[in-house]
Amino acid sequence: MGKDRIPQNWPSSMPYLSQPSFAPHITRTQKDALRIRSPDLTAIIPSNLPRGPCSLVKIIPIAEPSHPAHGQAGLFAARHLEPGTLILPYYGLVHSSLPPHSIAHDKSDYDLWLNREVGVAVDAEKAGNEARFINDYRGVGERPNAEFRQCWDARSGQQCMGVYVLPAGKKNTPAKVGAGAGGIAKGGEILVSYGKGFWSKRREEQDAANRA
User: Fold this and answer.
1) Neighbouring C-beta atoms of residue 157, cutoff 10 Å
2) What pLDDT does 181 receive?
3) Averaged over 10-33, what is the pLDDT?
4) What's the pLDDT score for residue 125?
5) pLDDT bucket at 209, cuts 50 / 70 / 90
């Protein structure tokens, strides 16, 4: 892939994905399950969405010392993003979340459930797209301004994870992180909630490390 197809500030040592990558151990049953669109899967990645770098976002290094991700990077809106709209898909390695294959992803901060019923998740730790740089809102804003949603990718005909601006009914973060009257303002950091389970697991790991 040429440099013009890699976002600015993308790590040179990490593969950039314009579509999901599948682990060799994924079974036919799991693949077939991902190709089924259930009636409640209403969020859609449209068939005309271009692959490759997303023009709606920018990867920007975090220079503010008080930011929890100081010294790393975050994902910011390149223009105003309307409430409830798709920002971009979340790409990574689609893998089995069942033992023994789940062991390799247990400590990843980039692993999301894709289909719990058949035990499939997507991990962007070692390869992915811009969505892997989205930070948790804690320590940055009062609440998130975006969310992960399981959705249907009309381009490939399979289930996918996407990042959406919070709908208008869910209050956005204050001006501190660039939220306007609705949606996410240009220049605002895109923030989600990693969830209580994520932080509980990280605390357990830290406690175990301290006891070692």
Assistant:
1) 12
2) 53
3) 96
4) 97
5) very low
The sheet carrying 111-115 orders its strands as 21-22, 93-96, 120-123, 111-115
User: Which amino acid would we find at residue 19?
Assistant: Q
CA–CA distance, 76 with 190 (Å, rounded to integer)? 5
What is the signed CA dihedral for 70, 146, 6, 102, rounded to 10 degrees? 80
- What's the one-letter identity of residue 26? I
Contact 101, 119 (CB under 8 A): no
pLDDT beyond 60 at 171: no
38-65 average pLDDT score: 95
- Give the side-chain half-sphere CA count within 13 A for 140: 27
**Which CATH number, 3.10.490.10, 3.40.30.10, 2.60.40.10, 2.170.270.10, labels domain 3-211?**
2.170.270.10
- Tokens encoding 163: 């990042």
DSSP labels, 60-116 = EE---TTSTTTTSEEEEESS-B-TT-EEEEE-SEEEE-STTGGGGGTT-SSEEEEET
Tell which residue, 78, 82, 79, has the closest CA to residue 182: 82
